[in-house]
UniProtKB/TrEMBL annotation, chains A, B:
Homodimer. Its cofactor is Mn(2+); Mg(2+). This is 3-isopropylmalate dehydrogenase. It comes from Terrimonas ginsenosidimutans. Keywords: Amino-acid biosynthesis, Branched-chain amino acid biosynthesis, Cytoplasm, Leucine biosynthesis, Magnesium, Manganese, Metal-binding, NAD, Oxidoreductase. PROSITE patterns: IDH_IMDH. Transmembrane segments: none annotated. The lineage of its organism: Bacteria, Pseudomonadati, Bacteroidota, Chitinophagia, Chitinophagales. Its EC number is 1.1.1.85.
Length: 350, 350
């Protein structure tokens, strides 16, 4: 198989973790006879420094013409204290999502026995947790009209959804549920929001096409409790953009380490794969960052190409490192291995 | 002291827990020589059944003319499956908040050693957790313009905030921080929302009047993680309506029991006090519900009247029941006491 992969190393630890993923992808290509071609491009603080723009047109161009995008991390502390600045790294990411119509953000939430001691939750609450969040990513209050009055004393953000925007991600979520434990939970606030009532209506209508999947509904405030009280109950969780931002980050604490959680953002064309962790600038360049989030994102990329066996092998290799204590400093501050050593171990394994 | 208290027993277990609070308030009145006069009124499913409206005008009238409102719980399962129904219990609560301008919802998050084993979080993560959430309650996306297109294929909810709406709750939150550990955290999404940027601007401006309070900012997605990862870091958390709905329910899981968490909703006039738990209809009429959430809400009501000593005594009595194992079925399903027994023990104590 021949594939073009756009690579956005991004900011902070982005470059060093992404490099390990590419090493693993190359090892997979070698073992299975595929050819992956990489084109590097810029986004985020790095892009602002080099071009003045958080998302140069060239990056959009390269991404549109690629089969998938591997992305590292975004953000630099120099922008953190002023979210009102005219040019900011996140704008690049939001614009890329919109330009590529990456309408579904997919976040698996799984736990690893070897990391149970790191979770803030009691072990009995997290054993066998295995769900996936489908977050709508290109609509809602993120992209609605934003206004600030002339005197600066009043502001507004409009949350808008069309039935079409809801339909396309809902189909993906139902299809995912069919391949899993056949349960879909829609998280909304239909007792207050008109957009949530539209979500409920559309999702209920589509449900009839997936009669093997059990559908239920949870108000977002209740969902925020249930995710901690009883995360085992979930299989596929579907929700709109803003609620998804909040509950997917909340759910990420369950496993005990943000460092190894992957994500995929899927659209009609090219899809983007990135670890959920941030750019973690304090660790940049020290070879101590956890590359597993990026490597497991690369596994999702392989799945996306239909290379299920290859993806499975990468996950097997990751499990093998964890159960044998080959872990980075965030997991074991005393007996730890370097970012690059993990990349090497995993590429050797696959 | 003479005070008029409006009492809305509401739905499900609302009446039986509220009765225990009134018993405790009467005991306090006896011991300290106060006079509390109660006027009963209707809201919620109960009000719909009896009058057709979730909030009869008479209730608004009584509440406006009272010094405080003691409220039980709202909601009945017959409305749960259809959030789009024309008349629903929650509408009563939302309308009451707006009519009385109850703009600040205050939710203390504390833990009790006797309940640590019930928390989904590891004990070391919850020891000494003690913070309070100030949620804006009458603005934002809850009360903005809601639209559904003629063909039903597009919906919108507008989120609007004025500087004034932000100012009044911000002052309350800073004043609370001054009486506590002098730290205020604003939770927003200023990297995406115009309204959040207005919140940040207004809160920063007001901060100069409270120079003894340390102010920091957290994006709501990060806050959703931090509340579970490290809840000890918070003192006063300030946020807008929708984010407050989500994170205050999330935070409520920390203590291990929703049954004993109180809340206050403060406005320019009369204030409302209610347990955070719902109407829990399965338990209604069985004398098994936990009355502590309501009784601790009554303690907040006493604080609101400036009766600090009285409020302290109620809290002392509650602690005494917990440490001596006088607990309801939700806390100990084997050796449990009845709702009314707890009310009796606590009124005898005070
Ligand atoms: C950086 C920010 C704009 C972004 C979002 O809110 O979508 C991030 O939190 C995420 O979840 O990818
Ligand atoms: C019942 C509902 C409308 C309400 C809200 O969202 O405000 C409830 O969840 C609450 O937090 O009091």
């Amino acid at each position: 198989m021949n594939k073009n992969i756009a690579v956005i190393e991004g900011d902070g630890i982005g470059p060093e973790v992404t490099r390990q993923s590419i090493r693993v992808l190359n090892a997979i290509a070698d073992s299975f006879g595929h050819e992956f071609k990489y084109t590097y491009c810029l986004m985020g603080a790095d892009a602002i420094d080099k071009t003045g723009s958080p998302l140069p047109d060239e990056t959009i161009e390269v991404c549109l013409n690629s089969d998938a995008i591997l992305f590292g991390a975004i953000g630099h502390p120099k922008y953190d204290n002023d979210p009102t600045a005219k040019v900011r790294p996140e704008q690049g990411l939001l614009k890329l999502r919109k330009s590529l119509q990456l309408f579904a953000n997919i976040r698996p939430v799984t736990t690893y026995t070897a990391l149970h001691h790191l979770s803030p939750l009691k072990t009995k609450n997290i054993e066998d947790v295995d769900f996936v969040i489908y977050r709508e990513l290109t609509g809602g209050i993120y992209f609605g009209k934003k206004e600030i009055s002339a005197d600066g004393n009043s502001a507004s953000d409009d949350c808008v959804y069309s039935a079409e925007e809801i339909e396309r991600i809902t189909h993906l979520a139902f299809q995912a549920a069919q391949k899993r434990r056949k349960k879909l939970t829609l998280v909304d606030k239909a007792n207050v929001l008109e957009t949530s009532r539209l979500w409920r209506k559309v999702v209920k209508e589509i449900a009839s096409q997936y009669s093997d999947v059990e559908l239920d509904f949870l108000f977002v405030d209740n969902a925020a409790m249930q995710i901690i009280l009883n995360p085992k109950q979930f299989d596929v969780v579907l929700t709109e953009n803003m609620f998804g931002d909040i509950i997917s980050d909340e759910a990420s604490v369950i496993s005990g380490s943000l460092g190894l959680l992957p994500s995929a953002s899927i659209g009609s064309g090219s899809a983007l794969f990135e670890p959920i962790h941030g750019s973690y600038p304090q660790a940049a360049g020290k070879d101590i960052a956890n590359p597993l989030g990026s490597i497991l994102s690369a596994a999702m990329l392989l799945d996306h190409f239909g290379l299920t066996e290859e993806a499975g092998l990468v996950r097997e290799a990751v499990n093998w490192t964890l159960t044998n204590g080959f872990v980075t400093k965030d997991i074991d501050p005393v007996n730890f291995y370097f970012t690059s050593t993990l990349g090497e171990l995993i590429s050797d394994y696959v």
